[in-house]
Design a protein that fits this description.
heterodimer, A: about 375 residues, alpha/beta, nine-stranded mixed sheet, two-stranded antiparallel sheet, 12 strands, globular, B: about 100 residues, mainly beta, five-stranded mixed β-barrel, 5 strands
Chain lengths: ~375, ~100
């Protein structure tokens, strides 16, 4: 079975904009096509989605009514990852030669306000003030810090790194560097997490053009190969957002299985990763996901982050574009942003934020409600 | 399926403090940003029928001071008022409180 290659990438800047979410998605599509030297009529299959900004296939009215098959994807925080996995599978199956994966979103300001019924929960759960993703993140990292010796200073350093990297990314939303004290002394939203340790729902769009690996050089001098794209839902015993109870038998997070499958499918080990983009809904998520993905041992994050090993010039650069903390989280676009950034890094186009020494292998990871995770491995 | 009566006492498995007024809906509390008082939320480890670790339940906590919350502390079930309904009647919910006299 031939490889799959990414031959075009396009993004609409993250942040707050006047354009609709769909329009931001269409901007990203046009930029990705230009990057691949292709036109919309060359695209044979598309997968796309948003969580709050409309049906992706509506954008054919702006891009061209070519009649292509276009599947709308709705899979929470893994919407982008699911689109990409679907594109990967379509190419592997021989259903098309050139496929696009598209993600965009536009959320209202402030924390998400989900409906309990959408998650199989009674109305009481929302009524009594438990239906907040922020509480879950606070409680998961609180327990993790207790079990594995992670300090508040390390949580703050994750945010400091994100804003520093974001300041070098003209597509990022929050580009003002911040000190560790500023992060630690900000308003406590959900102990132990302060305001600047959380990402915000936002806006943006990302599009990728993919093709069969064996024809990639027809379109691009710098193809990046998608070695694996995996998705897993939660196994028994995992600790997830919106859990009124947890089972007596504790189990692993869905991230563990998604990452393991990604490494196996790619034939690559965690120690071979040169750059990684991992879900940092808040600072603690980045810390915990470092270990859940297999990139380090549980508890090793404390020293790694304190000594700058996850900085751009460190041993294992993580979230080099500023991650969700600096870019915000337009849910449908967020997972594809990570892949976009890894393509930039593997092409050596990172500019001020380029990872040194020609990175060859890159990893992405998203996590979201109600317990899903998607991972990819890219290589040049 | 077998019904199991859960114990009223447990230990704190993890916790946080809700520091901002949740959006309404889904939150039914009638506070405003000016009157809102942060509230504790936690997961409480209950004992299983075999005496080992049983189910862990999520609950509001009566304590909202971070300095007084420690993983492993002893807690017991109670009821607390959290809002009033449209007719002005008090609405209560379950919560866990530190066991008096325990440290």
């Amino acid at each position: 079975m031939s490889d799959v290659a990414i031959i075009g990438i396009g993004m609409h800047a993250f942040g707050r904009h006047d354009l609709s979410g769909l329009e931001q998605g269409a901007v990203a599509v046009r930029r990705a096509l230009a990057d691949a030297h292709l036109e919309w009529k060359d695209v044979q299959f598309a997968f796309g989605g948003s969580s709050a900004a409309g049906n992706a296939d509506t954008m054919v009215s702006a891009l061209g009514l070519t009649g292509l098959p276009f599947i709308n994807v709705a899979n929470g925080c893994a919407t982008g990852g699911s689109s990409l996995m679907s594109a990967h599978n379509a190419l592997k199956a021989g259903a098309a030669d050139v496929v696009m994966a598209i993600g965009f979103d536009k959320h209202p300001r402030g924390a998400f306000d989900p409906n309990p019924a959408d998650f199989g929960l009674g109305k009481w759960y929302g009524d009594t003030g438990l239906m907040l993703t922020t509480q879950f993140f606070g409680m998961k990292i609180q327990r993790y810090m207790h079990d594995h010796g992670i300090t508040p200073s390390t949580l703050a350093k994750v945010a400091v790194k994100a804003f520093k990297n974001g300041s070098k990314n003209d597509m990022a939303w929050r580009r003002k560097p911040m000190s560790e004290d500023e992060v630690l002394n900000a308003t406590m939203l959900s102990n132990p997490l302060t305001q600047y340790m959380f990402c915000s729902p936002g806006e943006g769009g990302v599009a990728l053009v993919l093709c069969r690996g064996d024809i990639a050089h027809r379109y691009s001098d710098t193809p990046v190969f998608l070695k694996s794209a995996t998705l897993r839902s939660r196994p028994y015993g995992s600790f997830e957002v919106f859990n009124p109870w947890l089972s007596p038998q504790r189990g692993e997070a869905p991230t563990v299985a998604a990452a393991k499958a990604a490494f196996e499918q790619a034939g690559v080990g965690p120690d071979e990763i040169d750059v990684a983009q991992i879900q940092d809904t808040e600072s603690g998520a980045e810390v915990m996901h470092m270990a859940e993905t297999g990139l380090c041992e549980h508890g090793a994050q404390e020293d790694m982050i304190q000594f700058g090993e996850t900085d751009i010039d460190g041993r294992l650069p993580i979230n080099t574009d500023g991650g969700c903390l600096a870019n915000g989280e337009p849910v449908g676009a967020s997972g594809l942003r990570q892949v976009y950034e890894n393509v930039v890094q593997l092409r050596g186009q990172g500019g001020d934020r380029q990872v040194p020494n020609n990175p060859k292998t890159a990893f992405t990871h998203v996590y979201g409600a109600p317990g899903i995770s998607a991972c990819t491995i890219l290589a040049v | 399926m077998v019904d199991v009566l859960l114990p009223r006492e447990g230990t704190l498995w993890s916790w946080t403090i809700q520091g901002f007024l949740p959006k309404n809906p889904p939150y039914a509390g009638k506070e405003t940003p000016l009157t809102f008082v942060p509230y504790g939320v936690g997961y409480v480890q209950l004992a299983g029928t075999d005496g080992g670790d049983g189910v862990i339940v999520e609950s509001r906590l009566t304590e909202n001071d971070a300095a007084k919350l420690t993983i492993g502390m002893a807690l017991e079930l109670t009821l607390i008022p959290f809002t009033t309904d449209d007719a002005g009647h008090e609405v209560v919910t379950f919560a866990f409180a530190p066991v008096r006299g325990a440290s």
